User: Fold this.
Amino acid sequence: MALIRSVLHLLWMAVTVIPWTLGVLLVSLLPRRTGAWWVAVNWFRVVMWGTRWILGIRMQVHGLSNLPTAEYSPVVLLSKHQSALETLWIPTVMPRPLAFVFKRELLKIPFFGWSMARLDMIHIDRESRSAAMKLVIDQGRRLLSQGNWVIMFPEGTRIARGQAGTYQTAGTRLAVEAGADVVPIALTTGRCWPRDGFVKTPGVVHMSVGPAISSKGRDPRDLMRQAQRWIEDEMRRLDPEAYGLEHS
Assistant:
């Protein structure tokens, strides 16, 4: 049954992405690029509907009250990355347009990649780390100054459930340079939507948004260590069995 559900969900995504891609392409021709973002978010919501009712994955969000609410509040979101689900889910719960930092090869994906190319995001070439860092800082500062929030996965790639990768400091360097708060995010998407596997299983996944951390006067490495501690501690609280811990 899980396999059948997974196939149906893939078909759901494939069928719905086509009209939404056309919508993004059309709206992106208007002067304000944020309109295209909200068109894309509506597709993410459609995918989340299918995730709930086709795959049987229920999603719970905690800590949204931790998000800054001031009219001008630059934020760099630093999120755990376990599967593709969070890239679709996080935008649907955030109050501001998001700019993802991602490898430019994703732009080659039919329809989805074409839509991403029309959104104001940061496409990097991972082969050139110095050029990628400069692009993240330059484009990130511009986007933050325009009211967008930048989201990054500091471990750089999807990490298996119960594991931790190496946290890179690009996100905290951007936050320090731009005077933005850092908001850590922990999530347990890997419980139902595996990192590499095709078959998804029903269940409950959690997203926990941590308190905003000021970057003022901070060292990027120390700031990242603080964000990492919060994320990894919260992961153990949300998904104790993945870390061999007993339920509290």
Observations:
- The chain has a mean pLDDT of 92.
- DSSP finds seven helices and seven strands in the chain.
- The chain has one domain: 56-243.
